[in-house]
Write a structure and sequence with these properties.
Blueprint: E1 2-7, H1 16-27, E2 31-36, E3 40-43, E4 46-49, E5 52-53, E6 57-62, H2 69-74, E7 77-81, H3 84-90, H4 93-100, E8 110-114, H5 119-126, E9 130-134, E10 143-146, H6 149-158, E11 163-168, E12 176-183, E13 186-194, E14 208-211, H7 216-229, E15 233-240, E16 245-251, H8 257-263, H9 267-278
Parallel strand pairs: 1-2, 1-6, 6-7
Antiparallel strand pairs: 3-4, 4-5, 8-11, 9-10, 9-11, 12-13, 12-15, 13-14, 15-16
Length: 280
């Protein structure tokens, strides 16, 4: 079985998630190679990687979210994880909220708009302080806690052309959240993240992690999200509400380091095992 792991750079074997997927693929007898978008080109309808034509594959693992070249690499494979359709839709945080509405999940109040929306309108809808998010951000980047007008005006100057998500701040979850990883709707690992400082608890920003019990409500949330999105592999972030978990966001290309180190679960091995089964 042959597969491509799509990353930004080809020489990413030293990065934790990339290295673990390659390691587990080798153990499972799967021929998995990294295709870096920076080293790929589409010439007259033919894909090249480091100057050589890119051949067919049984599957691709999508770990790069942007541009058109990744779409063409997907066309060379029979299966994509996550699927190209799901990847392209759910890299956008607004689409997550739109598609998951109407079920049992609890959501913070939100407004979607450009930075030109008035400060007063945002406060009237979601309160103060509020969270502002870029729609394509990851690892805690482009996520801001706005407590006063001056902070909002500063954001307006730097984010003029982008749509932004303005959300209700869940004070009960300040500096901590829950991240769980699921494969085909099954929650296989779960951790709590605690911020080193401030309100963003991302492991990539230095937050600490520890195993967290995946209770029945978390498993119910996982099943519902899978039913609505059909994403095979997914990281889900939840906030601690007063009465229920509050949905924060999906991550279609989640890193594995924090999760594996916090829980001891071989998430990379589970991914490769599932891919072998799905791609037959």
């Amino acid at each position: 079985m042959k597969g491509y792991l799509i990353e930004k750079y080809t020489d990413m074997g030293g990065a934790y998630t990339t290295g673990r997927l390659l390691q587990e693929a080798e153990k499972a007898g799967v021929d998995l190679s990294v295709v870096g978008i920076e080293d790929a080109a589409l010439k007259n309808g033919v894909l090249f990687h480091r100057g050589k034509p890119l051949g067919k594959a049984d599957f691709v693992i999508n770990r790069y979210k942007y541009g058109v070249i990744k779409d063409y690499i997907n066309s060379l494979a029979d299966h994509g994880y996550n699927s190209l359709k799901g990847l392209n839709r759910y890299i956008n945080k607004a689409n997550e909220l739109i598609d998951l509405a109407g079920g049992s999940l609890c959501f913070p109040g939100y407004i979607l708009g450009k930075s030109g929306i008035s400060y007063e309108e945002i406060i009237a809808s979601v309160g103060i302080p509020f969270v502002a998010k870029g729609l394509l951000s990851s690892q805690g980047r482009e996520v801001y806690l706005i407590s006063k007008r001056e902070e909002f005006e500063k954001l307006q100057k730097h984010q003029r052309e982008e749509e932004l998500l303005f959300q209700e701040f869940i004070g009960n979850s300040y500096g901590r959240d829950v991240r769980f990883f699921m494969a085909e709707g099954e929650v296989i690992a779960c951790m709590e993240r605690q911020a080193k400082e401030g309100f963003r608890a991302n492991f990539a920003l230095g937050g600490s992690v520890r195993a967290y019990p995946a209770d029945e409500r978390i498993r119910e949330i996982g099943r519902e999200i899978y039913k609505r999105t059909e994403l095979k592999f997914l990281g889900v972030d939840l906030l601690f509400g007063e009465k229920d978990y509050v949905f924060c966001e999906l991550n279609v290309t989640p890193g594995l380091e924090g999760m594996e180190k916090a829980t001891g679960v071989n998430v990379a091995g589970k991914i490769i095992s599932c891919i072998k089964e799905f791609s037959r």
